[in-house]
């Protein structure tokens, strides 16, 4: 695998948040989120189209240099999946106040990918620690003056929109050798004609779900000697 950062910690998605100076008067009244009827929201953030995407350029160059693949362009979209009971006003506040730099970035709760031949989504597998997601939770709580419930969280991932004359096996090579670590990450690949512009990648919640139920029973013990056995 040809990633520059080989450690598990550095492979995790790196999100940078704006500096936040919380005004307690403007902050919402402190409370605990109820977690009832919550609908996960997917926030997508990308560089403005007129700006050079250095990360995307690096991916294109590696694909060409190492594997001889014809990648014309790669653009990266950062994704925050917010699994919490927040109002539309709260979501808009955190979009503009925390996660989007208005000078260099644009963001939306709707799919943003356009002008591509292939889409690659890469996210963490269920159960893998998401430090950037934890930092996002802290930033949201500080800005809104609330505390999220234990079952509420934020998950980070990335979308790579790639342009070029590529076969699916070529795109799979890019994913496995450049973009993702199969041990801790999962991914999906979409061709342009498979992509739904209204749905996008959908909502991906990498939460661990355990189906087993604990068993509680009683066992008669007639003597201490039997207990020792």
UniProtKB/TrEMBL annotation:
One of its GO terms (biological process) is purine nucleotide biosynthetic process. Keywords: ATP-binding, Cytoplasm, Ligase, Nucleotide-binding, Purine biosynthesis. The keyword Hydrolase does not apply. SUPFAM superfamilies: PurS-like. Transmembrane segments: none annotated. PANTHER family: PHOSPHORIBOSYLFORMYLGLYCINAMIDINE SYNTHASE SUBUNIT PURS (PTHR34696:SF1). This is Phosphoribosylformylglycinamidine synthase. It comes from marine sediment metagenome.
